[in-house]
Amino acid sequence: QVDAVRVYVNSSSENLQYPVLFVVRQQKGVLSWQVPLIFRGLYQRTYNYQEVSRTLCPSEPTPETRPSDQIIFVDVASMAPFNIAYELLVTRLENFQLETNKAFNFTASPSQPQYFLYKFPQDVDSVIINVVSDAVYPCSVVSVQDIVCPVYDLDHNVEFNGVYQSMTKQAAITVQRKDFPGEQFFVVFVIKPEDYACGGSVPSSIHGNVNRTWNLQRTKNLQVTIVPSIKKSVYVQAMFFSFLSFLSFYLGSVVVAFVHYIRVQRKASAGRLTSEHGSGIMTSSRPISASTPEGSSYGAIDESSSSGGHQMSSPERRRTAGSDTDSSVEEESDFDTMPEIESDKNIIRTKVFLYLSDLSRKDRRIVSKKYKIYFWNIITIAVFYALPVVQLVITYQTVVNVTGNQDICYYNFLCAHPLGVLSAFNNILSNVGHMMLGFLFLLIVLRRDILHRRAMEMKDIYTLDYGIPKHFGLFYAMGIALMMEGVLSACYHVCPNYSNFQFDTSFMYMIAGLCMLKLYQTRHPDINASAYSAYASFAVVICLAVLGVVFGKNDMWFWVVFSMIHVFGSLALSTQIYYMGRFKMDGPDSDLGVFRRAMMVLYTDCIQQCSRPMYMDRMVLLIVGNLVNWSFAIFGLVYRPRDFASYILGIFICNLLLYLAFYIIMKLRSSEKLLPIPMFCIVATAVVWAAALYFFFQTLSSWEETPAESREKNRPCILLGFFDDHDVWHFLSAAALFFSFLVLLTLDDDLDTVRRDKIPVF
């Protein structure tokens, strides 16, 4: 048991010109202070205290002295030309050493800080220091310092040594034995003279001309409990759980693929048997299918009968069955050079009832190559975006480790398990699901792509007019985006704070945007946006997100400009969607002619046909979509949410859900059906997203507030004693995104045996 001594001094003098100086000399150090003790706040405000109490640094017993002997010299001096009365009291602390799993209550104030000693038990390698208080204010600081004298226990020097946190009602610091060679440390508690660092306001008594306050009552009751942290075996269990949970998705995919393979082989055997009995119809003349009657769909060959001998469109007639491979000499500038397409696409795309054959007239090889640009571009973007992010978060973590300032990063400190240089390894490990499921989705898409290519090599040219055109470039891009979301979310959680939250959301914007593009591409393969324009649009969104982080907190002008961009952008995009990309504001017309044409279109389609638009379904979707987006714009303009990145993400997600719901409704209206696999994926997506959002809204920290206020929301781990609510959100959101991607991949498998001139466009 280590003994400690506390010195209490009091002086009635208020003369700041002649303070009383106290110097305490010990075996290994000197401690000094003055009375009145002066603390400085914002704007040159001062807080003076006439009562001061300090704990002296305990000295270890030596062979020359008995354990209870401590030699202390106390010098009292003043330069005052008159006598000053003071009181000096030296007491021995009975409860200086804290015990494991035992709560200890005490009181502290700005002029009377407290610190205590803790020694690691033999079987404990890591502990969590939990500090709680019933009162929010006064603002306080909890510090962990090595056994070095003097101990920094005043407001102006507590940040000079060790690890520290600001605190209102709750604080938690994880301490590891390896960081303290002596296997012991001091826990220091300092009360700040002002509360602005914890989100409080400046006391009203010092407003105006008064800039000096005497003996302000700022006493705080605190309770500290030191509990053992988790053992290394829990780390191993958590890692096994994380990887095995998502490896089960790989196993499930292998089982589904094997079952599908068995069914395809049985159908192929049945088809050959039918051919041998003289059916006269070769399997090679049947349509391409990525579906079986049971709904298992991986781009295999359907052996069901179909009518042959139908007429092909002129560009399709030029192709042969073996010409499906991409050519490296074709450029994107060749996409629209076929004169027969240029001559009639304005007429075709303005028909009241469009079918897929009207919007899939371009050469499949060139269109497929166009969509593969999405894949290569997102890899390039990911590399150039991720490398600076990794460098920045490493710098953040280094600053935290070197300075000991744990107010830089907004962790859930009650469930932050360090590993190596990382302060919260559990928040990083929980993102492994995004990377593993993103890679699995790439494998599933690759298998579909390979099977589809094999099917194309086995079929004749007539089967090219069946089903949704198979272009996998956007699916590959979605898989890469899901993996990068895991990487960047892990980077954000290295040191989560206000400045780098955009890293966690950037690829979420891209995922939502790519999903909308894929939905649109499904029935509009010839007129979907190019990769360059799509990624340029995402770049604009990310730039707006950065501006929102910088200016979105208080600047009204930013919200006015953003709301205008949002509203006019929605209208412009709606116009392009409504007219299938044939409404152009450029060309040979003069400027006056452009505006005259715009007015004529507005008059014809919005006034004359207001009661019955030419494209009713599209008009309903666009009206609802614009109302939703205008509502978001008005909400942002009125409330100006601080979390601008989440605000933009909400806009993307709502638009995606709206479009997906419209697509499914129109699909069912068109007498199309949902096969078992897409139906299962839709149900799984809804269930998993609901569970994920429940954990997402269990707020465990918030960089919209001060670090001390954010710690009030911290909560213990809920899964394996290692993962918190936000980690569960990571697990479930990865699975939900994976199922969402499978919905888009399998949604139209029922159309693989339907002619394209029978598939409606909506």
UniProtKB/TrEMBL annotation:
<feature type="compositionally biased region" description="Acidic residues">
    <location>
        <begin position="327"/>
        <end position="337"/>
    </location>
</feature>
<feature type="transmembrane region" description="Helical">
    <location>
        <begin position="532"/>
        <end position="551"/>
    </location>
</feature>
<protein>
    <submittedName>
        <fullName>SIDT1 protein</fullName>
    </submittedName>
</protein>
<feature type="compositionally biased region" description="Low complexity">
    <location>
        <begin position="304"/>
        <end position="314"/>
    </location>
</feature>
<feature type="compositionally biased region" description="Polar residues">
    <location>
        <begin position="281"/>
        <end position="295"/>
    </location>
</feature>
<keyword id="KW-0732">Signal</keyword>
<keyword id="KW-0325">Glycoprotein</keyword>
<dbReference type="GO" id="GO:0051033">
    <property type="term" value="F:RNA transmembrane transporter activity"/>
</dbReference>
<feature type="transmembrane region" description="Helical">
    <location>
        <begin position="644"/>
        <end position="665"/>
    </location>
</feature>
<dbReference type="InterPro" id="IPR025958">
    <property type="entry name" value="SID1_TM_fam"/>
</dbReference>
<feature type="transmembrane region" description="Helical">
    <location>
        <begin position="728"/>
        <end position="747"/>
    </location>
</feature>
<dbReference type="GO" id="GO:0005886">
    <property type="term" value="C:plasma membrane"/>
</dbReference>
<comment type="similarity">
    <text>Belongs to the SID1 family.</text>
</comment>
<feature type="transmembrane region" description="Helical">
    <location>
        <begin position="474"/>
        <end position="495"/>
    </location>
</feature>
<keyword id="KW-1133">Transmembrane helix</keyword>
<feature type="transmembrane region" description="Helical">
    <location>
        <begin position="501"/>
        <end position="520"/>
    </location>
</feature>
<keyword id="KW-0472">Membrane</keyword>
<feature type="transmembrane region" description="Helical">
    <location>
        <begin position="619"/>
        <end position="638"/>
    </location>
</feature>
<feature type="transmembrane region" description="Helical">
    <location>
        <begin position="557"/>
        <end position="579"/>
    </location>
</feature>
<dbReference type="GO" id="GO:0003725">
    <property type="term" value="F:double-stranded RNA binding"/>
</dbReference>
<feature type="transmembrane region" description="Helical">
    <location>
        <begin position="677"/>
        <end position="697"/>
    </location>
</feature>
<feature type="region of interest" description="Disordered">
    <location>
        <begin position="275"/>
        <end position="337"/>
    </location>
</feature>
<dbReference type="Pfam" id="PF13965">
    <property type="entry name" value="SID-1_RNA_chan"/>
</dbReference>
<feature type="transmembrane region" description="Helical">
    <location>
        <begin position="374"/>
        <end position="394"/>
    </location>
</feature>
<dbReference type="GO" id="GO:0005764">
    <property type="term" value="C:lysosome"/>
</dbReference>
<feature type="transmembrane region" description="Helical">
    <location>
        <begin position="428"/>
        <end position="446"/>
    </location>
</feature>
<feature type="transmembrane region" description="Helical">
    <location>
        <begin position="238"/>
        <end position="262"/>
    </location>
</feature>
<keyword id="KW-0812">Transmembrane</keyword>
